Amino acid sequence: MQNTDLELQVKTLPNTPGVYQYFDKDDAILYVGKAKNLKKRVSSYFTKNHDYGKTKVLVKKIASIKHIVVSTEMDALLLENNLIKKYKPRYNILLKDDKTYPWICIKKEPFPRVFLTRNVIKDGSEYFGPYTSVRTAKALLSLIKELYQLRTCVYDLSQKNIATGKYKVCLEYHIKNCKGPCEGLQLEEEYLENINAIRNIIKGNFKSSLEHFKDVMFKFAENHEFEEAHSIKEKIDLLANYQAKSTVVNPSISNVDIFSIISDESFAYVNFFKIMNGAIIQSHTTEIKKKLDETDKHLLELSIIEIRQRFNSQSKEIYVPFKVNVGNEIKVTVPKQGDKKQIVDLSLRNAKYFRQERFKQIKIVDPDRHTNRIMAQMQKDLRLPKEPRQIECFDNSNIQGTHPVASCVVFKNGKPSKSDYRKYNIKTVEGPDDFGSMEEVVHRRYKRLLDEGQELPQLIVIDGGKGQLSSALKSLDVLGLRKKIAIIGIAKRLEEIFYPDDPIPLYLDKKSETLKIIQQLRNEAHRFAITFHRNKRSKSAIQTELEQIPGIGKQTVESLLKQFKSAKRVSEASLKAIEEVIGTSRATKVYNYYHLKKKDS
């Protein structure tokens, strides 16, 4: 893949179900496909060696990729079908079976028929579907026919034709599949009640008909017609997995535009869906750079006008997440529940994914812009006078006051700068005194920076609550840095952010990038301090054991460790091996110490 922009688009695709569209250099659509995992599926086009010649040609022509995120694999299948019908991409015609999915139709006519069709005709009839499983649709119709006696003839059953006796009952009447409305043997009111019950069943509203199902099944059972009763039970079980509606395709939503928006400090992202005849036929997300502190409402209003003009939309109604003012000619609907709300939520989800992908792309090709945005967000969230380009975080570590140490980790532009990390042995504090240790290490750190004329950080983070924060402040006061460096404390339990002289802590949004960076700082400082403390404790334990041997000094211990690497290996070494390092006299003392110890144990 030589196109850098294309490579970037593939890298940042989401791992979710959806539909992808390939475009050539002239922005003409080449191919529409569905995927359970967009990133894996699209990546496969550019990583596999394709045996099929036309696929190789297709891949060479791809200049850009667009995608639409959906909720389920079935939704992706349906949306793919709609887009192929709408745009008829060249390579879909060559590579895919261009089939149409079936619908269940309740015909607009006296004594309506209910049947399966692949052709949706605008004649006022009701269409439900489409069904990706023909078996499910046929099972549904079969169950309906078991429960209700419906006509299948194509006669025009007007009151005049029935009254004049134009038609005669057929075989369906005699085998009790129809009640004979053609001869006036069934009232239209009764028939329409059955149609209403059928409409509810198709929509998945089984509650109102459940008792009727049971009655029919029990009647078969009472009449010892067990096969028929079992047949109805099997069909009801099959329909338990039936998905009555689809968010992507719904005949009740027709000829409308959907808009949603998500924004941050610097940019807003507006998603647009165009729905025609109950199906999504277009999706577009645009990025808007904020100039001032514009509201989402203002930005969405501007975007609606601009996008509708760009795509020449003539829809008279729009669905949006909140009220907007776009003139009197367009009906504005803010859905609160149901299918309309689901389609707005899906639009918002696509805007969020687009934003995430832009962030990923920016990190790769323009890291400065990403960093600037993060720094501006942190300055705002933490109420700082400057952007925290350099942050330093301190943590203490000790066990019951033994081997007290501290760490200082440094983040520059939101990322760890490990070469600037520092570790400290606590010198002036005895016993388990975290407050005293914090005061000492903060003083040592910034006295040295001042003495050496090095750059000071814009923010200090203290791992701990008010006590540790107060101790650190004492050192800053002594050094005259109290007002020159911002300082905060973070308490582990509730992730509370404490400020000097402010009794009320700040609680950041758990999903905010600012809190994630502060947590990463805190975790790094803790890890660095713990590692240093463990190493010091381990080294101390080894040296203490060897130095406990009578007649063995520090220099001898260092010689042994240099040769054998650990006290354990010294204990397992032969007398001759030890003699070669420290001589016969001292080697005998070390050898006897470990071997006499083993005998005693």
From TrEMBL:
Main location: cytoplasm
Keyword Protein transport tagged: no
Pfam family, one: UvrC_RNaseH
Domain GIY-YIG: 15-93
Function: The UvrABC repair system catalyzes the recognition and processing of DNA lesions. UvrC both incises the 5' and 3' sides of the lesion. The N-terminal half is responsible for the 3' incision and the C-terminal half is responsible for the 5' incision.
Self-association state and partner proteins as the record states: Interacts with UvrB in an incision complex.
Name listed for the protein in its UniProt record: UvrABC system protein C
Organism: Aureibaculum flavum
Underlying gene: uvrC
